[in-house]
Amino acid sequence: MLNNLSPNISPLGISLECHCDTPMEASNDDPYELTEGIIRELNIRAKQISHRCIPLIHWRLSPTRFDASATTQIMYYLGKLFSLRPRENSFCVYLSDSPDIATHMALFRGLGFDAIELENINNELRLLELTKMAHEYQFTRIGINGILTNQSKASSIPHESIDYVIASSPPPLDRFSPITNNLWVKSHGDLYKAFLNDRLTLTHQGINTFNISDSLGIGPGATSFNLQGNQKNTSSLDEYLTSGFIS
């Protein structure tokens, strides 16, 4: 898989994920050991694909496992090792609700993330609060993964602040257009215009407007994709930290 990625010169996306077979909360390991493991993988992967520009980052690492210090350190190495486009990129963070979500939003916005996807927010008042919060932090793209299906409960959701919805059934929102069976985008919005111009791409890691289908997965259990297939890192935390990444 990675050998197929190497000679390619087209843009590449990076998805940072953690799918350990042992919950980190049950581990006695140093919590920063996993951060060091991810940085180790970044150094190795960079030697294989450093010639490819990276305009797209999907951050799926949980803030409860990776605090502000670890997050900043990983982003430092991403910027150091890879060719990130300073003003031609889209960095998306995926967040579930938590008492510290405002702090997490502020951290990622400060690190240059322009997009946010809110996951599994099943209370309409909380969804209203969080979409307003994301808008106030000036995220330029706000997505919802999972949404209420009751039209009466969705009346207060700020439609103008939401750019796309991923759900198993049509969202109870006006002025949204279906793109696939589970993706709806704001009608006449930037994503819809990208769709009309054949620039909107939906992959296993998320959506992008760069026509990027190749994606490098970083972290235990992360999966890399290209047109030839996929390759998955080992989900064993011990194996990931002490030996190779591939299962």
Number of strands: 15
Global geometry? globular
- Structural class, please? alpha/beta
Largest sheet data: 9 strands, mixed
**What's the pLDDT, averaged over the residues?**
84
Radius of gyration (Å): 18 Å
Low-pLDDT runs of 5+ residues are none
Helix-strand pattern:
HEHEEHEEHEHEEEEHEEEEEH
Oligomeric form of this entry? single chain
Distance between termini?
13 Å
The spatial strand order of the largest sheet comes to 9-10-8-7-6-5-3-1-13
Strand content: 15-25%
List the total number of helices: 7
The level of helicity is 25-40%
Q: What does this molecule look like?
A:
This protein is of the alpha/beta class. The chain contains seven helices and 15 strands. The chain has a nine-stranded mixed β-sheet with strand order 9-10-8-7-6-5-3-1-13, with helices on both faces. Helix 2 packs parallel to helix 3. 34% of the residues are buried. The model has no long low-confidence stretch (mean pLDDT 84).
Compact overview of the structure:
The protein is an alpha/beta fold. 30% of the residues lie in helices and 22% in strands. The chain is built from 7 helices and 15 strands.
Features:
single chain; 247 residues; nine-stranded mixed beta sheet; 7 helices
Strand and helix map with partners:
Elements: H1 2-5, E1 13-16, H2 31-49, E2 53-54, E3 56-59, H3 68-81, E4 83-84, E5 90-96, H4 101-110, E6 115-119, H5 124-136, E7 141-145, E8 164-166, E9 176-178, E10 183-186, H6 190-196, E11 201-202, E12 207-208, E13 215-218, E14 223-226, E15 229-232, H7 237-242
Parallel strand pairs: 1-3, 1-13, 2-4, 3-5, 5-6, 6-7, 7-8
Antiparallel strand pairs: 8-10, 9-10, 11-12, 14-15
